[in-house]
């Protein structure tokens, strides 16, 4: 579903047209199966979106033992390939930037309610009064941390634009 799957569909067919042997691992809410579509071997692993990174590891390892992969590509979004990469660290890893979850989260936040605004002012007053800005550095959400670690695992990072590369690079 969505932009990442559209990208994967287009890039895999293009790679196959140029002679590459391509396999895709993806989640499915209803089934686990494998099939070939337009020359691309597709492996579905039954899982929900957040469980996919761990659910896919055994299917990947089994296939990698039979047919050694030359490279792994995974998205930045939700660090979906990170656990596969940790299971096969010898395989070069490319992260394709789409839009990390932290960025989507920041863009789609609900407007602040009065209590939240009041708490932000109290926090700001505390920082001004104590000159202690360290309280502003809150722990990141676990998904943000996973995405950051995922980028550090990469041998290469590919971006569709300089803007997204710079935005993610700064974060």
Proportion of helical residues? 40-55%
Contiguous low-pLDDT stretches (5 residues minimum) are none
Mean pLDDT: 86
Distance between the ends: 26 Å
Note the total helix count. 8
Q: What's the number of extended β-strand segments?
A: 6
Estimated structural class: alpha/beta
Order of helices and strands: HEEEHHEHEHHHEH
Widest beta sheet: strand line-up: 1-3-2
Protein described:
There is one protein chain. It contains 8 helices and 6 strands, in the order H-E-E-E-H-H-E-H-E-H-H-H-E-H. With 171 residues, it is of the alpha/beta class. Strands 1-3-2 form a 3-stranded mixed sheet. It has a 3-stranded parallel sheet with strand order 4-5-6, covered by helices on one side. The model has no long low-confidence stretch (mean pLDDT 86).
From the structure above, extract its key features:
alpha/beta, 47% helix, single chain, 3-stranded mixed beta sheet, 6 strands, 3-stranded parallel beta sheet, 171 residues
Write the layout of secondary structure elements.
Blueprint: H1 2-17, E1 23-28, E2 33-37, E3 40-46, H2 52-55, H3 57-66, E4 72-75, H4 82-87, E5 93-96, H5 101-107, H6 114-130, H7 142-153, E6 156-158, H8 162-170
Parallel strand pairs: 1-3, 4-5, 5-6
Antiparallel strand pairs: 2-3
Describe, in short, the structure shown.
By secondary structure, this protein is α/β, with parallel strands linked by helices. Helix content is 47%, strand content 17%.
């Amino acid at each position: 579903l969505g932009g990442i799957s559209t990208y994967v569909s287009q890039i895999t067919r293009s790679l196959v047209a140029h002679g590459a042997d391509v396999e895709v691992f993806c989640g499915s809410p209803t089934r686990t199966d494998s099939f070939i579509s337009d020359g691309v071997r597709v492996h579905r692993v039954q899982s929900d979106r957040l469980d996919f990174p761990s659910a896919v590891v055994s299917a990947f390892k089994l296939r990698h033992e039979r047919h050694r992969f030359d490279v792994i590509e995974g998205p930045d979004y939700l660090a979906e390939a990170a656990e596969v990469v940790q299971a096969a660290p010898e395989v070069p890893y490319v992260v394709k930037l789409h839009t990390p979850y932290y960025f989507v989260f920041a863009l789609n936040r609900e407007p602040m309610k009065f209590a939240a605004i009041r708490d932000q002012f109290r926090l700001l007053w505390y920082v001004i009064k104590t000159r202690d800005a360290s309280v502003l550095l809150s722990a990141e959400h676990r998904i943000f941390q996973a995405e950051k670690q995922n980028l550090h695992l990469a041998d290469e990072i590919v971006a569709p634009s300089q803007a997204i590369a710079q935005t993610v690079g700064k974060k």
